[in-house]
Each structure stands twice: as structure tokens, then as C-alpha cells.
Amino acid sequence: QHTLEGNRDHTAVIHICLSIYLDRYFQTLYSSLTVVVLVHLSSDVDVIDCSVPQYNNRLDTPLPDVPFVRNLSAEQKKLKEKEKGSWTQLTKEEKLALYRLTHELSYAEMRQGSKEWMTVLGGIFIFLGFTGLLVWWQRVYVYGDVPHTLSEESVAQQTQRMIDMRVNPVHGFSHKWDYEKKQWK
């Protein structure tokens, strides 16, 4: 009977934990679904249909498929109506405004280029300067002195020892030494 009550207590604890877990799970699921539904129902989201031609400024195709301004204001609509008449009645500013409705940039403005190269070059110089400072810091504070084995005396001693030991006599180091004349071949 004692073990039966223990099993009931254990089962009750499992039920409580499971109900807490499921409650949290469904609250999270409900809040996630609410966000998804609200995002899909909001009219502020601008979805671009990629099957429809898009406006772009390109030098190889200076005449875009669609006009730059799609949603015309009342003033722009009046100007478009005036465009249907004689162009001699349009002022230079109105002609320019009509051009800007269909094109964001003129061909000359597209060819003008940008000053982005200055930013890129500045970034490169900053990176190189930082790298130089890092190399200098490592030479001063990280690296030790040059090993004594790299001095001219030590290199000469190592070379003489390799000659004396006849290192790699067929095609290597000792092959280039004339042992009778005691000089390099």
C-alpha cells in the first residue's frame, strides 16, 4: 500500500510537470502564430513580384522597362495629361519633371561614377596601417632577439661542418665542394 501511494504521488508530479510544459509550449506556439498572422495581414509589408519587370539604372540598357515613379501624385497626373498635348507648350522644367518620372538618372549621371573608390582606398590604408602597427608591436614586445645560429660566424661554422661530414655528396651540398682544392666548384 505504501508503494501504491508513492506511485500516485509520482504520477501526480509527472502530470503537473507535463501540464506546465504543455501550457508553456502552447503559449509560445500561440504567440508565434499570432505574430505570423499579424505580419501576413498587415498592409505595410511590401512584397515585390519578381515576375513583373523592375526599374533599374544600367548603362547597357539606359531605357528601363518600367517608369521610375509608378504611383503619381495629383500634380504629376496633371503633368502627364499635359504631356499628351503639344510639347511646345511645356516648359523646360516640366519636360525635366516628365523625364524624372520615367528615369531616376540621366545617361550622363550614370556614367559619372561615384566616389566609392575613396572609401575603399581609405579602408585599405587603414587596414595596412593597423597591420603595420601589429607587426611593429610583435617585433618589439613578442619576438625575442635573433638566434645566435643566424649570425655569419655560426652559418660559416655550420657550412664547414656540413662539408666535413660530406652531406649529400651526389647531388647536394657536398657535391658542389671541391675537396682537393678546398673551394666551391
Number of domains: 4
Strand content: under 5%
Radius of gyration: 41 Å
CATH topology of the largest domain: Cytochrome C Oxidase, Chain D
The amount of helix comes to 55-70%
Overall mean pLDDT stands at: 83
Major β-sheet strand ordering: 1-2
Q: What is the distance, rounded to the nearest whole angstrom, between the alpha carbons of the first and last residues? A: 104 Å
Strand runs, count: 2
The SS-based structural class is mainly alpha
Order of helices and strands: HHHHHHEE
Largest sheet: 2 strands, antiparallel
The low-confidence parts are 1-6
Organism: Cyprinus carpio
Function: Component of the cytochrome c oxidase, the last enzyme in the mitochondrial electron transport chain which drives oxidative phosphorylation.
Pfam families: COX4 (PF02936)
GO cellular component, one term: mitochondrial inner membrane
